[in-house]
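seq:
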Amino acid sequence: MSYCEFVRSGKAHPVHVHYHDQVYGFPVESDDALFERLVLEINQAGLSWETILKKQEGFRAAYDSFEIARVAAYGDDDIARLLADPGIIRNRLKVRAAVTNARKILELQASYGSFKSWLDSHHPQEKPAWVALFKKTFAFTGGEIVGEFLMSCGYLPGAHDPDCPVQPPRPLSA
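struct:
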C-alpha cells in the first residue's frame, strides 16, 4: 500500500493526513525547514514515521526551532540536554549527526549562499548520485534517509501516486 493509499484508507493517524496533504513532496524554501526535514528523516531510521511526526513539536523545541547556526554551536552540555529530552529520539549518533550536519550546512551556506542553493546546484540527479553526495557531505545519511528527504522536499519524484488528489507543484527543474 502506498503512502497515499494509507492516508486515504481512514486507518492513518491524523498526523499522517496533515503531512501527506500539506508537506510531503512540496518544495521547501527555508534552510532551517530543510534542516528540520533532514534531522527528522535521520531520526526516523529504525522507527515509524508516525513516531517522528508525533514528536515533531518536541524536536522543534529541543533543537531551537532548527535554527542552523544555533544547533551548529551546540556543545557537550547541549548534547547531554538532548539525550535526556523525552520529547525527541534520544540516540547519541542521531543527536551528534544533527550538530555535525548543522555545522556542514553553515559551510555550504558560506560557499553557495544557502543550503537550498547547494541542493539546487546538484539538481537534477538520480537517487544513487544524491546518496553518494550526501554520504560524502553529511553524517548519518544512507539511501533511505536521503531518498525520503529529497522526495519530501520535491527534489525526487514519487512522493504521491499519479492519481492522488494532492499534487504538489511540479518538481524542480534544472
